[in-house]
Predict the structure.
Amino acid sequence: MVVLIGPGGVGKGTVARRLVELDSHLWLSRSWTTRSRRPNEDGTEYYFVDRATFERAIDDDRFLEWAEFHGHLYGTPQPDAPAGDDVLLEIEVQGAEQVRKANPDAVVILVLPPSMRQLEERLRARGDSEEHVALRLSSTPQELAKGHELASYVVVNDDVERASDEILSILEGLRQQRRDPL
Ligand code: 5GP
């Protein structure tokens, strides 16, 4: 299991989608969320559900992990990946902490922006309100601190292709170790 974490706006969703395009043995989990769809989203990014539906799924133990982030619930359904595929999650740090506890072998990769200024610009470019951008930036220092604590690898997303290639090389190295532990 591979877990991508990083502050909102860093582009980890784009990197995750690129990774599964490049690597046919990586299976990207689709999360549930109670937040509403953004204007620039096509609806495939999440299963968008209401809070009551999400809470029922928690009670029914349907999540591998879930967390509340800036007033909305986000959760990873129990993975249903084809046999032999590695599971890729793109989640925030509280969820990554739960995954790590349940599965100490999970590989956590922290994706960083080239600079804080770029992060701010990317959040604005998504069409979020100024208020929302300020809220998201306010939690970035804690997300980064926790992220560094959890992550085994740190990758700077200065360019989606370059960052994706770097992550694929990390995964290739880990798969090699798994095949040939000595
Ligand atoms: P956004 O609302 O910007 O799409 O996502 C907000 C944050 O929630 C991002 O850091 C994203 O990675 C994270 N997130 C997305 N899906 C999940 C999930 O299933 N579980 C958890 N814990 N976080 C998630």
Notes: The chain has one domain: 2-179. The mean pLDDT is 95.
